[in-house]
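Exercise: predict the fold of this chain.
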Amino acid sequence: MTQSALLTADPGEDVPDVAEILEQLRLAEARLARARQQNSGLTETDRAAMRYLLERVDALEVTPTMIAKALHLSPAAGTALIDRLVDRGLIFVEPHPRDRRKKLVQPFDRNIDPDHVDPLTSHLRSLAAQLPPAEARTVASFLKKVLGAVSGTTAATQRKKRAEAAR
């Protein structure tokens, strides 16, 4: 148990070591990402883009910009992602029929089950749906803080690398 957990816990209460569980989650996620990429050749971003596209393609006209925004990618990273998926033969890009400035993204196979591309997401959604509303709010609040910490660390690392490269 962490020092802070020991200081705030009631003497008879069993308090989970959330920091340790988070570390285990980070390690398990990293192992999973490596194994999934090795097995399928798709990165986590590729898989997320395919899931996004497959879940919306019949209801929406999906554009490269929509995919990039949904995955929080820069325009350049979004373009690289689309190019990678085109090169792998998973998607094709076609001109928008009414707006010459836009392009539409289509999967080559509309019958691919998004759960086949990314079964873990469905399972995690199911687990989240089982949370009572009060617990869901608490967990969501905590996970947003974790996401902010991870995103902030990632952004700081990227800034540092750019600064070093500029020297």
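Check your answer against the key: Helices lie at 3-8, 18-40, 44-56, 64-70, 75-87, 114-117, 119-129, 133-166.
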